[in-house]
Amino acid sequence: MYNFSDRFAVVTGAAQGIGYSIAERFVKEGIKGIALIDANAESLGKAVESLKGVGSSKVIGCHCNIVDYEEVKRTMDGILAAFGRVDILVNNAGITRDAMFHKMTVDNWRLVVDVNLNGTFNCTHTLVNQMRANGFGRIVNISSKSAWGEVGQANYAATKAAIIGFTKTLAKEGARKGITANCLEPDFIETPMMVAIPEENMKMRLSQAPMQRMGRPDEVAATVVWLASDEASYINGASIAVNGGTRT
Ligand SMILES: NC(=O)c1ccc[n+]([C@@H]2O[C@H](COP(=O)([O-])OP(=O)(O)OC[C@H]3O[C@@H](n4cnc5c(N)ncnc54)[C@H](O)[C@@H]3O)[C@@H](O)[C@H]2O)c1
């Protein structure tokens, strides 16, 4: 059992999938307060309601598009006003718009860069100074196995590779201020994001997976919560594969 009884966290993209599972695990671990950020108001409302039944943490839902810096700034200022500080930031929100590169539209390149990379910048930039002032912070970013290249995912892979470099830089810059930054490279996790993958492709990937199954969101959440805990105090700048062995 970790001790999050005096910790406040923000999780982006927390209305469903991996983000929801991360928020749920923090609540089960007894975190003092958690803010869920998501662009989908309806699923966000349901997520907040359902988490209130999981534990006694203070749970806040923030409807926010992380692409818009000013909107993110207002949202983070509201969370800081409610909690007093934010100790943990999990940059989880992300999207795919897959296509072979020669068929990829400019709009879908820009949208994926805006959400996955610029959104991660916006959320981190608007919180990092108060972490520095507090002398404590845990930043966990969600990259992907696709960072290493994936057919049909030039846009997505570029953002996920950038997140690794971003994380390793934050790790070096924040270390003397008590801030660690780490990221995860999940693969093949059973969430709504995966419905975009054609059935044949899924069957092929499943047959090649060493464990012959997809990962579960709670298996990603377990790693995130550990990285955010005091137990991981000397883990900084790591990028951890959570993939059942699909890339070793
Ligand atoms: N599922 C996988 O196999 C897998 C593998 C590797 C990495 N990842 C990464 O894990 C993270 C979560 O993925 P998931 O599978 O749970 O996805 P998901 O699509 O199930 O959930 C993503 C959430 O992010 C929210 N979101 C999207 N754009 C947003 C925006 N602009 N502002 C605020 N919120 C926004 C969505 O509304 C949704 O609730 C993503 O960064 C994804 O790239 C997933």
What structural category characterises the helix and strand content?
alpha/beta
Name given to the CATH architecture: 3-Layer(aba) Sandwich
CATH superfamily: NAD(P)-binding Rossmann-like Domain
| Mean residue pLDDT | 97
- How is the biggest beta sheet arranged? 7 strands, parallel
| Distinct small molecules | nicotinamide-adenine-dinucleotide
The DSSP helix count reads 8
Write down the Rg: 17 Å
Give the termini distance in whole angstroms.
29 Å
Order of helices and strands: EHEHEHEHHEHEHHE
Segments where pLDDT lies below 50 for 5+ residues?
none
Q: Structurally, how many domains make up the residues?
A: 1
Explain how this protein is built:
This protein is α/β, with parallel strands linked by helices and 248 residues long. It has a single domain, classed as 3-Layer(aba) Sandwich (Rossmann fold). It is 44% helix and 16% strand. The protein has helices at residues 17-28, 41-52, 69-83, 106-125, 128-134, 154-174, 199-208, 217-228; strands at residues 8-12, 33-38, 58-63, 88-91, 137-142, 179-186, 239-242. It has a 7-stranded parallel beta sheet with strand order 3-2-1-4-5-6-7, sandwiched between helices. Helix 1 (17-28) links the parallel strand 1 and strand 2 (33-38). The mean pLDDT is 97. Nicotinamide-adenine-dinucleotide binds at residues 12-13, 15-19, 37-40, 43, 65-67, 92-95, 115, 119, 142, 144, 186-189, 191-194.
